[in-house]
Amino acid sequence: MGLVGFAVDAATYNLLVFFEWHGWSWRTLDGHGILFSHPLTAKIIAIAVATAVTYVGNRYWVFTGRRDDGHARHLVLYTVVNVAAIGLQLACLGFSRYVLGLDSPLADNVSGTLIGQIVAVVFRYWAYDTLVFRRHPSERGD
User: Fold this and answer.
1) What is the pTM for the complete model shown?
2) Contact at 8 Å (CB) between 41 and 82?
3) Cα–Cα distance, 111 to 96 (Å, whole number)
4) How far apart are CA 38 and CA 52, in angstroms?
């Protein structure tokens, strides 16, 4: 699901920041889309869309064999973990944009999407496995 989340995040972010909708087609606007001046807002939207997609995949495919302690519990913990992961991605993008002064499509995609996603995916997988979709003691062999 990490690759799916990566693709959805990257596509959504790039559409919001670097492309503009004209009629029935997308076109670049010299690298300045509707949220170009608000990259952190665009990243939050992109991550929210990717999170919704990956929740379904993680819940019903990746961690499907785990005992269900309640759908509401999973959803709340999943949300908390993803808010923390969003902070990690925003920190990478914000550092690149506001500290290093880099605002090209390449810089945003390397810092916010590639590096930010790698850090966030590692954190998310660990948190999903240990906190959200954790194994019941009877499933661990304890």
Assistant:
1) 0.67
2) no
3) 6
4) 22
Backbone dihedral region for residue 101 (phi beyond 0: left; psi -120 to 50: alpha; all else: beta): left
Segment-wise mean pLDDT, segments of 10 residues, the chain, 142 residues: 83 88 61 84 91 80 63 80 90 94 90 90 87 66 52
Place of tokens 């979709």: 133
Residue whose token pair is 């170009």: 36
Closest among 1, 21, 10 to 116, alpha carbons compared: 10
How far apart CA 127 and CA 105 sit, in angstroms, is 30
**Three-state secondary structure call for residue 30:** coil
**What gap in Å lies between CA 50 and CA 2, rounded to an integer?**
10
Q: Which residues make Cβ contacts (< 8 Å) with residue 78, sequence separation at least 6?
A: 51, 55, 58, 59, 128, 132
- Helix (H), strand (E) at residue 25: strand 25-28
Q: What is the 3-state secondary structure (H, E, C) of 72-98?
A: HHHHHHHHHHHHHHHHHHHHHHHHHHH
In the chain, what is the straight-line distance between the N-terminal and C-terminal CA atoms, in Å?
28
26 φψ region: left (φ > 0), alpha (ψ -120 to 50), beta (else) = beta
What six digits make up the tokens of 86? 């969003």
